[in-house]
Amino acid sequence: MSVLVNKDSKIIVQGFTGKEGSFHAEQMIEYKTNVVGGVTPGKGGTTHLGLPVFNTVLDAVKGAEADTSIIFVPPAYAADAIMEAADAGIKVIIAITEGIPVQDMVKAKAYVSDKKDCRLIGPNCPGVITPDEAKVGIMPGFVFKKGKIGIVSKSGTLTYEAADQVVKAGLGISTAIGIGGDPIIGTTTKEAVELLMNDPETEAIVMIGEIGGNLEANAAHWIKKTGNKKPVVGFIAGQTAPKGKRMGHAGAIIGGADDTAEAKMRIMRECGIHVVESPANIGQTIKEVLETAKA
Amino acid sequence: MNIHEYQGKELLKKYGVAIQEGIVVDSADKAADAAKELRTQTGTDWIVVKAQIHAGGRGKGTVVGTDYNGVMLGKSPEDAAQKAEQLLGNVLVTHQTGEEGKKVNKVLLAQDVYYKGESEIKEFYVAVLLDRDKNCNVIMASREGGMDIEEVAESNPDAIIKEWIDPKLGLQSFQAQKVAFALGLKGKALKEMTKFIKSLYASYIGIDASQVEINPAFKTSDDRVLAVDAKVNLDDNAFYRHKDLAELRDESEESPLEVEASKFGLNYVKLDGNVGCMVNGAGLAMATMDMIKLAGGEPANFLDVGGGASAETVEKGFRIILKDPNVKAILINIFGGIVRCDRVANGVVEAYKNIGQINVPIIVRLQGTNAEEGAKIIKESGLNVISAIVLKEAADRVKEVLAS
């Protein structure tokens, strides 16, 4: 068991023959991820990295039984690529692309939400990794050693940092889900946490958020409401960020009193989450929390 | 991206939003003629003189060292010109600008719409924005126009009307009408407000705005509805399909270092602290700032150099950070994933040498692929650079540097 992606996932790469798509597809294949092909309109029938290229996602579903897609399509066409994947029956769509116009995502999100059994992760995310099974993203695979800690995060390198600390604390990762830093994303913090709460292979969860929006507060309330079934260690980036300034990620902007790091950390604490103030303490804290839980 | 009131109004007008008409000027010499022209065009007796800066609270804000406000009433073209002169080239301080205020480079001369007539005048609040929780756009309105919407949300949340828009259908007429009724309007004013809301939504979608806020949306004494102010924020990510909108950027409204960094393609935000930082990834960059604070310092900036972190980007980052005189130390925090730490280390050394003398201590924390090799390169470089691998270690080094 694991969540979202595993060794049996049949993965295609949208934007397969582009620079980014090619580079990361190669890295994914090197990790022994089950990549079954890719999509580049107009290049159908050719091969790339030894795998078939299809004109449309539907062709890839029919021709290679694809059920998972990773998107590297440029921002102007990425929302369209997401909708095409959903329409073709892809079950898990992972959109890496950064810089998609918000109104495009409003449409794409509504479109995906109407499909049964279809989940979008991202956009503007590092992807999803289930160590030793599938790396469907741009993360450095070697950092993520197999284990029982699930990670949910809005950010890329901060996810790698957390995974590295977890591993150095003598633990490992079940699945790490990068949900993305945009204002409109396919899978929320709460939904990703819920997947890990229901995963028998996950014993504890690291939940990493940042300023802007209510995703972490919503997740925290859900965790408390469902009885804090597994220990959760939380961190919110942006305690020192000024109000009204966008901090890199399109969604990382403090709008009011409720979406500051301070407010989110307070809510998370009230909901029984082990909040760390310093990002340097994630690994140590998850270790201590697990030891206490087992004692 | 933020734009000025006059720019926002011009955009809205193209989509049929009725606005308080005006003429923008950048010198007092032009103000008197512009005021006369406005009087001819609109028949207005009085003229509202409005400072154009990227900050709210202009009406109550004052020009440094005077009693002049950011919004004033001119009772003749000459009076308007005289008041424009008091604003132009001077610094206006409002509750949103901070103590340092903002220099006024342009002034909007606008028609007076508060004239007496048959019905009572009224100020409303009308905005279109994104509801991140519901993943759709929302019309927000309130009868308490002229007030800060955050204050209304705090003191009287029931007074805020919300109408969510179906992403696939867009705004429907009945929804706009519903909002107009909820604002307590009837007759001609109701129709005008309905049309106003529909045009406003069309503009929001048409220009890929992330927010259009009209405060006040004004009902005149002859039951017309006009945008008296306009706060428009644009989605930078959509500029590829709106080349004309990208040109509305006013660099004089931004911090000079931020303008320079954006020319280098760096994601930089200037802050007031004493420890500069350079990080790959936005989340880790924010986390690094937080760590600096916990170590007893204050972050001087946010700087995300992106995934690559090459010698070139590192050098550009150095140059931007070093221009900030408050910086007493620099922390470079790179988690090398796809990019190898030894390459980043070589980049740091190269950048350091290219710049020459750097008078503040530098702490370089490299973690990830080839972290040990990276640390070795830093140590053996002979430069005034402190190396760290684990994040905790980097925090401790920052603490030591600040204490010494």
Can you walk me through this structure?
The complex is a heterodimer of chains A (295) and B (404). Chain A is of the alpha/beta class and 295 residues long. Chain A has 9 helices and 14 strands. In chain A, the strands form 2 sheets. In chain A, strands 3-4-2-1-5-6-7 form a 7-stranded mixed sheet, sandwiched between helices. The longest helix of chain A has 13 residues. Chain A is globular and about 55 Å long. The model of chain A has no long low-confidence stretch (mean pLDDT 96). Chain B has 404 residues and is α+β, with helices and mostly antiparallel strands. In chain B, strands 8, 9, 10, 11, 12 and 13 form a 6-stranded antiparallel sheet that branches. A 4-stranded antiparallel sheet of chain B has the order 1-7-2-4, with helices on one face. In chain B, strands 15-17-18-19 form a 4-stranded parallel sheet, with helices on both faces. The mean pLDDT of chain B is 93. The interface between A and B is large, with 64 and 56 residues.
